[in-house]
Amino acid sequence: MEAKEILKVHVAKLASLSDDEFDYFFSFFKKQSFKKGQVLISEGDTVDCEYFVISGCLKSFFINDDLKMFILQFAMPTWWASDYNALYNHTRATISVDCITDVEVLCLSNADREKLCNEIHNAEHFFRWRTNKGYVAANKRLLSLMNNNVKRRYEELLKLYPELYNMVPKSLIAAYLGVSRETLSRLYQA
User: Fold this and answer.
1) Which domains does the chain carry?
2) Taking a C-beta distance cutoff of 8 angstroms, is the pair 59, 100 a contact?
3) Is the pLDDT of residue 175 over 70?
4) With CB atoms counted within 10 Å of each terminal CB, which end of the chain scores lower, N or C?
5) In angstroms, rounded to a whole number, what is the distance separating the alpha carbons of residues 7 and 160?
6) Are 26 and 8 in contact (CB under 8 A)?
7) Alpha-carbon distance values, 80 to 54, 149, 179, 181 (Å)
8) pTM to 2 decimal places
């Protein structure tokens, strides 16, 4: 499926745009390709866009002062990624985004998103509901981190996103769960 069609199906799940409205909506997106390991956003960068994943997988992460990586999000096809704090508040990036695999994305600038929201009511509706869904997902993940042991969190992750198991190295899944690769391995040797 072509990038335009993938985005159209994605948007249609939350908002109704006429063909003309969608063509206008789509005209603001810039298609980009990145190679495995390539960085889209580094800590300290100015962030002016968000990325809609067409193919491949991104990760959003933070590295603390002890050089330990914490993965905030994996972004697979039809997911969005950016440093939203930096994007919305015009601050420097505090998280990084890079490619776990080769990736194809559609990039939308903050200014263009705002223009679309001002001009097309259903575009604003789409972005609002997308943000709401992201907020709910983040809360669910936070509650899972607070309430569940590693084994349960791992099982939940693979139940919700089975494609991650083959797409993402186990060391990154461990970082997402907040444990070492060795801890994750021990759980499944027992």
Assistant:
1) 3-120 (2.60.120.10)
2) yes
3) yes
4) C
5) 22
6) yes
7) 10, 28, 25, 26
8) 0.91
